[in-house]
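for the writeup, i need someone to sanity check this before i put it in the appendix. the sequnce is what the collaborator sent (i think, or maybe the updated version? ugh). structure was predicted straight from it, no edits. if anything looks off just tell me and ill rerun, i have time this weekend
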Amino acid sequence: MQDKNFDALAGKFAKNIYGTPKGEIRAAVLWRDISQAMTQLPEGQLRILDAGGGFGFFSQKLAKLGHSVTLCDISSEMLALGQAQITEYENDSGEKLDITLLHAPIQSLTLEELGQFDLILCHAVAEWLSDAKQTLAGLTQLLKPQGLFSLMFYNKEAMRFHSLISGNFDYVAADFKVKKKVGLTPSYPLYIDDVRGWVSDWQMELVTVSGVRVIHDYLKTHQPPNSDFSQLLEMELQYSTHPAYIGLGRYVHFIIRWQK
């Protein structure tokens, strides 16, 4: 099994994921969680793997902090976009980033080839895999003892709820199966409890749980005249970790680590 290849959608993907308000919310929640969790890791340069990281939004941020990053993706177009951004930054700043770009499916990554990492990122990948548990379990084997695994996945229950409040009852009744699938609609959304079960099976510890976009996707079309994005972002960050709202997140972010 291989990851969904976004070669044909690279430009659209990059724009939709991080070039929109919903993308800014996603980036803000993830960066807050990752930054806080990284305080648990050793000081100094860390080895980081961005598995299925596309053009490397977080790879670039982490490399700019002085860390050594391996960015892996199956899409050559996404990696080319990332390389262009890296080159532009290096030319403008005069600073060389420690990023290695690896064109490969994440299922092919091995401990013998890459060694161990302090931090592994795997964001919005699992929901494109029919063998998500097996693939993610393989990635955990690349973690150092006490290393951290940042996993963000598409939340099937939130997908259902959004469809219900939109009145798309036939879509829900058909278990989200449609004749014509939208290019960026994940093939295998996941249940939170299932992924929690995987973490337990792996004998790992869940240290962070956040909902990503717990408000944005449910907003009414017409907003109050005094509303602005900064208010929305503040509320998203505030309620992303509230137990009552985590399950509403279009995505859910877990950070896990070995218990040993």
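The first helix runs from residue 10 to 18. The beta strands are 47-51, 68-73, 99-103, 117-123, 143-154, 204-212, 251-258.
thx in advance!!
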